[in-house]
Amino acid sequence: MIGWYIFFLFLALLILLSAVGVVVMRHPVYSALSLLFNLCVTAVMYLALMGAPFIAMIQVIVYAGAIVVFFLFVLMLMNLKRGEYEDKMGPWRIVLGIGAFLIFLLQVIALSGKWKGWVHPGSRGVGIGEISRLLFTRYVLPFELVSLLIFVAAVGAVALAKKRL
Amino acid sequence: MGIGVFPYIVLSVLVFLLGALGLMIRRNAIVMFLCLELMLNGVNIMFVALSRRMCSAEGQVIVLFVMAVAAAEAAIGMAVITAFYRVRGGVDVDRAQLMKW
C-alpha cells in the first residue's frame, strides 16, 4: 500500500520536473526532449498505476513517436544554430548511451516473461475490447468526424505551408 | 482500491498549470506549442484517473479523441509557424504584429 504511494510520488516527481524543463529550457530542442520524457513517464503511469494499457501504448506511439518527432523535425528545419547544438552534447554522450542501454535491458527483461510487472493490483484495467465497443457504438459519429478533421488538417497544412499552390 | 483519485487530480492540475505558465512566459512559437501539448497531457491524466474511478472506459475514449485533435492541431500549427517563419524570418511571436494597431 505505502509502496504504491512511493511509486506514484516518484513518477509524479519525474512528470513535474520534466514539465518544468519544458518551460525553462533555453534551447527549444531540450524543451522538446523534456516533453518526450514527460509523455513517456505519463505512459508508464497509465500502464502501471491507472490500469489503462491501451492508452499507454497509444500515448507512446502517437504522442511520443509521431507528434514530438514532428516538432523536432520542424525545429531541425528552422532555427537550430550549428555551434550551440553540437558542443553541448559532447560530454553527455556516454551518460545518454548508458541510459539507452538500461532502457533496452528493461525491455528485454520485460519481454522474457520472467518479470510480472508492476501493475497495480487494485486497478481492474480497461481492455481494448471495452474501449472499442464504446468507440464503435456510442461514439461512432465523433469517431468518423475525427477522421474527417484529420483529413482536413492535413490538406490545410499543405495549403498553408506551401509557397505557391 | 490502492491510492485514491485525489493525487492524480492534483498532478493533472499541476501539469496543466505548468503548461499554461509556459504558454504565457515563452515567446518562441514552437515552445508555446510544446506547452500546449503539456496542457493536453494534464487533461488526459485527469480523464484516465476519473475513468478508473468510475470503472468505465468512456474517459479513455475521450483521451483518444484528445490525442487525435492534438495531432491535427500540431499539423496546422506547424504549417502556420512555417509560413510565419518564411514571412518574418523567425519564430518569435513578438514579431507577429500584423493585426496590432
SSE layout and pairings?
The complex is a heterodimer of chains A (165) and B (101).
Chain A (H helix, E strand, L loop, with lengths): L1 H23 L3 H21 L4 H25 L4 H5 L5 H20 L16 H10 L2 H22 L4
Helix pairs in contact in A: 1-2, 2-3
Chain B lengths: L5 H20 L3 H25 L4 H31 L13
Helix pairs in contact in B: 1-2, 2-3
Q: Key terms for this structure?
A:
heterodimer, A: 165 residues, mainly alpha, Four Helix Bundle (Hemerythrin (Met), subunit A), 2 domains, 7 helices, 0% strand, globular, B: 101 residues, Helix Hairpins, 3 helices, 75% helix, elongated
Number of H- or I-type helical stretches of chain B? 3
Shape of chain B: elongated
The gyration radius over C-alpha positions of chain B equals 17 Å
Straight-line N-to-C gap of chain B: 57 Å
Number of domains of chain A: 2
Task: Assign the CATH architecture of chain B.
Answer: Orthogonal Bundle
Instruction: Supply the CATH superfamily name of the largest domain in chain A.
Output: NADH-ubiquinone/plastoquinone oxidoreductase chain 6, subunit NuoJ
Give the integer mean of the pLDDT values of chain A.
Answer: 81
Uncertain residue segments of chain B: none
Spans of chain A with pLDDT under 50 lasting ≥5 residues? 83-89
CATH topology of the largest domain in chain A: Four Helix Bundle (Hemerythrin (Met), subunit A)
Q: Report the sheet with the most strands of chain B, covering strand number, pairing sense and barrel closure.
A: none
Query: Main sheet of chain A?
Result: none
Portion in helices of chain B: over 70%
**How large is the radius of gyration of chain A?**
20 Å
Q: In CATH's first tier, which class of chain B applies?
A: Mainly Alpha
Tally of separate domains of chain B = 1
What's the rounded overall pLDDT mean of chain B?
A: 86
Q: Which structural class should the secondary elements of chain A be placed in?
A: mainly alpha
The overall strand count of chain A is 0
